[in-house]
Amino acid sequence: MTVAFAVEDRVARVTLDRPDRMNAVDAATEAELELIWREIESRDDISCVVLSGAGQKAFCTGADMKGGAGKSGLEYWSESRENGFGGLAFRRSLDVPVIARVNGYALGGGFEMVLGCDIVIAAETAKFGLPEARVGRLPLDGGMVLLQRKIPHNLAMGMMLSGRHFTAAEMQTYGIVNETVPLEQLDAAVDRWVADLVACAPLSLKAIKQTVNRTAHLSPAEAQALRTPALVRALASEDSVEGVAAFREKRAPIWRGR
């Protein structure tokens, strides 16, 4: 698999591509994705990320079981993937919002990557699932630990224990998908969300995501009292002054990320 990465107009686009269009991830792709996430984390000129799969068949179908690695379940489990599948599933150092553009199958690790995104826009034809139990494996890279924290217990267990594929409409009722649209309208829908995020101050976006990620385990009072680095930076930024000035002057703000 190859990974296309480009940044334009404050938007980073990360696209998974494989000739057979099933977009299974191998070890080399995992390493490439890790480098991309680290670069995005180091930059102040990015307001959001759009993660997608090339073509119309699949977003990502998880680990490459046909790649010839020949690893046992225990060998795969023992390897270090501290940020979950694709370096994203439960990554907490990436403060830039990530939009999942789901065009087809998002299965196994692909679905775990979706769970690591902040906003999910899916085509009506998209399919989601954690089918690992059907091949004698487990959703080790985020599925078992993330899904139960995002949706009700019975819904999470139904997905993991059945190994079934679920539609985008079902995932929207579960609260995983933000918006479901016909495939031909998918890019337009993603662009609308991108426009909304880019209209916001990039440091504010980072502060919101960092605070949410670092305070979920705290009580409301403890969370309110926590001074996350991104929060302090946003409140003390030039953009904070610019946003208020632009509002008073009835013009669009000019964000500089500082």
Automatic annotation (TrEMBL):
<protein>
    <submittedName>
        <fullName>Crotonobetainyl-CoA hydratase</fullName>
    </submittedName>
</protein>
<dbReference type="InterPro" id="IPR018376">
    <property type="entry name" value="Enoyl-CoA_hyd/isom_CS"/>
</dbReference>
<dbReference type="InterPro" id="IPR029045">
    <property type="entry name" value="ClpP/crotonase-like_dom_sf"/>
</dbReference>
<dbReference type="InterPro" id="IPR001753">
    <property type="entry name" value="Enoyl-CoA_hydra/iso"/>
</dbReference>
<dbReference type="GO" id="GO:0016829">
    <property type="term" value="F:lyase activity"/>
</dbReference>
<dbReference type="GO" id="GO:0006635">
    <property type="term" value="P:fatty acid beta-oxidation"/>
</dbReference>
<dbReference type="InterPro" id="IPR014748">
    <property type="entry name" value="Enoyl-CoA_hydra_C"/>
</dbReference>
<dbReference type="Pfam" id="PF00378">
    <property type="entry name" value="ECH_1"/>
</dbReference>
<comment type="similarity">
    <text>Belongs to the enoyl-CoA hydratase/isomerase family.</text>
</comment>
<keyword id="KW-0456">Lyase</keyword>
